[in-house]
Amino acid sequence: MKLLFIRHGDPDYTIDSLTEKGWKEAEFLSEKIAALDVRDFYVSPLGRAKDTASCTLKKTGRTATECKWLREFDVQIRRPDRNGEKIIPWDWLPQDWTKVENFYSFDSWWDNDILKEGHMKEEYDWVTKNFDKVLAEHGYVREGHYYRAEKANEDTLVFFCHFGVSCVLISYLLSISPLVMLQNFCAAPSSVSTIVTEERRKGIASFRMSSFGDISHLYAHQEPPAFAARFCETYDNKEQRHD
């Protein structure tokens, strides 16, 4: 089975939709996804994800199941370097989050006062529990760190969603800390991340990432990726985002 996690196109957060560039990205993406044999589509309830999905769904004459838990990972945490400010969990400064050793552990990343205040583990559990329900419906049941292949298949499932929740779901499938993915991975708008099953022994399946943040559909149209989700490559670059 293949799972495709698609980040929405270049966003206009003020109206929860896409910029003009984002709509172009969504159209180029639709050419790629429409060529696939997709079993089911799932989509976040937020406008920017639904608008991105709309181009593919229109081209294929399909519909998508809207899932509340696919919305952007809705957690705000206390910013450790600025009193009174809150941030999303993937905007911590490196010199702050890397000090916490258990952030690198799949089994204890959540054991931190700031994350507990923000109820991040509760949100994580809610998202992953609902995700596992979908996988079970398609024949794969969580068993510790692997999945029981009760009905092994080669179906393709597509999830139109967001960067944060994609990192949470992928980290869960790979049994790694979500903090590591949220802080160290970057997926450009409209990018596609692909996870595939491997069943080397009958009934025992694991998920393996074959690509992350693929934007080949943009390169095919000579469309540069948007800078959204990234920070400045060098501190002296004043044109790129620092915070």
TrEMBL record:
Matches recorded under Pfam families: His_Phos_1
Coiled coil: none
Protein name in the entry: Histidine phosphatase family protein
Natural source organism: Blautia aquisgranensis
